[in-house]
């Protein structure tokens, strides 16, 4: 492990796309003396790169069809200065990750993070992100058990990580995406109550709230409940490999509520901040934990209503972003170098960060130099 750690470069390869230089170009890389011990992969469903890098959209935030109170919404999230604007919307990403980590996917610099599957919707996106494969058979959002194995399932099979892997999600399809029965990983999803002995007070309260106080239970649980579920479990059990999947950004976008889409993104940023602060003030996790933050798919951008949609026929659905912070990540901030990270390689990147090699994954955009 030590030798591997010393030899491994943690690198996001950037396939250089500028015709001026044909050679592959990488962000500045440093050898890592110590790799990360814990990985937290955190997603918010269908959130666009446009808002990550540019903040609120001027047309949509001023359109009363999508934003009920433009004046108030602009006090919260608007500035004429794009850098101030994005910081107002996602303060943790721009105050902390931009200083201590990396943000990828700003097309203004031809820096791209892209979905490889042809569908541009959730199940194929999560399959690609979590299993490192694009599977033509994964082409629906229906509750079908996934034949592909996620990196969490693979790690959970190893003695080192057994019972150190857990997932918490708002969308109730994840038990199928993870193939819960086969994988054996802990997963709390949708409005399923937290199970097990010796529940914390917080877990008991969560069960009470979601079973008794939420009247209309849809397929996506309130993100706040998913956050509480994750936080309580993490503080009690200290898992090393964690996935948290939030879902309300996509729900509000489909409903055409740009104001709520922004508010939910801002809430997502607050979840990240709270969790990072917890991790960095906890002896078990401090300076040993890496966050990878991303999304399952993009959404439309070409005309004013296309932001509500995504899918194979909506341009923009394959354009995503990623943010990373932790001991495995060189603090380069916003990456302004042309290049591409593919969604299907993110799981391999994560496994590499643990000082391991996922031999089953594709080999096309990551390097592990020996
Ligand atoms: Zn959607």
Based on the model shown, name its key terms:
globular, Alkaline Phosphatase, subunit A, eight-stranded mixed beta sheet, 370 residues, alpha/beta, three-stranded mixed beta sheet
Description:
With 370 residues, the chain is of the alpha/beta class. The chain is built from 15 helices and 13 strands. The chain has one domain (2-367): Alkaline Phosphatase, subunit A (3-Layer(aba) Sandwich), CATH 3.40.720. The longest helix has 23 residues, at 258-280. It is globular, with a radius of gyration of 20 Å. The two termini are 13 Å apart. Residues 1-30 and 362-370 have low confidence and may be disordered. The structure holds zinc ion. Residues 46, 122, 250, 254, 310 line the site of zinc ion.
Rg (C-alpha, Å) = 20 Å
Question: How many domains would you count in the coordinates?
Answer: 1
Query: Biggest sheet: strands, sense, closure?
Result: 8 strands, mixed
How would you sum up the global shape? globular
Contiguous helical run count: 15
Order of helices and strands: HEEHHHHHEEHHEHHEHHEHHEEEEEHE
**CATH level 3 topology:** Alkaline Phosphatase, subunit A
Task: Please identify the top-level CATH class.
Answer: Alpha Beta
Helix/strand/pairing category:
alpha/beta
**CATH architecture tag:** 3-Layer(aba) Sandwich
The CATH homologous superfamily is called Alkaline Phosphatase, subunit A
Give the strand order, joined by hyphens, for the main sheet.
6-5-7-2-8-10-3-11
Q: Report how far apart the termini are.
A: 13 Å
